[in-house]
Amino acid sequence: MTAAPAALETPYLLTDHDVQRFDRDGFIRLSEVLDPDALREREPEITAKVLELNTVHKPMEERSTTQKAFLQVGNLWRHSQAAHDLVFSPRLARIAAELLQVDGVRLYADQALYKEPSGGITPWHADQYYWPLSSDRTCTVWIPLQDTPLDMGPLSFAAGSHHFEFGRDMKISDESERELQDALAREQFPVDEHPYDLGDVSFHLGWTFHRAGRNVGTEPRRVMTVIYMDADIRVAPLARPEQQNDLDKLMPGAVVGEVPDTPLNPVLYPQA
Fold this sequence. Notes:
Blueprint: H1 16-25, E1 27-30, H2 36-53, H3 65-69, E2 71-74, H4 81-87, H5 90-100, E3 105-114, E4 122-125, E5 138-144, E6 155-158, H6 174-186, E7 191-193, E8 201-205, E9 210-212, E10 223-230, H7 241-250, E11 267-269
Antiparallel strand pairs: 1-8, 2-3, 3-10, 3-11, 4-9, 5-8, 5-10, 6-7, 6-9
């Protein structure tokens, strides 16, 4: 990989206003964070690995709601240098730490989320439902690997919903879409949806409710995500079976009450 490595390493200048907006809204979109050429160079390898490791092959009409929403492949950094470059980017990890207002962040996981043409909605949900972590100092960076206009299904966020406790016990599903759509509208949380240019990214907190529309375009919506957690966060008592699954797969060997300092959860910022 040769294209603009500095774009993944050099600091990105956040303002105090950016940090305040993130704290207020639970998310932020940032323009021109990554060099489009660096993403174009890495996309084919990431896409090839997603197609290789993907386990969903049923016709769209036979899939569940979440299978229609996206092809989901995790821990790509262990299989692809191109994915590794994004996951271990000091530039992105530093942004995460500054937005979370913590001294450092470690990796929780990465996920590729590919929404195929004719792919369905991603229902309203909050990611931290799945994470057995002791605080809310967690966030996800959403990295489109192409321009993402509205017809491809970019993320929508309910601004300020990270303070809303209704729905935190709901996994992503038809029920979460229906119940949260009504509850968020009733509480008048503004819904923010915008296209992304290649190089734009967004960060959202683990308890920020978000969704995505259908992909009615002709190309797949190709996205990489990286989930960050406070480097000093601890494993919380498990609240549901999905959290046991994440503990086993994403933090193997981690113990409740202790920092998940495992080989799969390295500190990404500050670098040693």
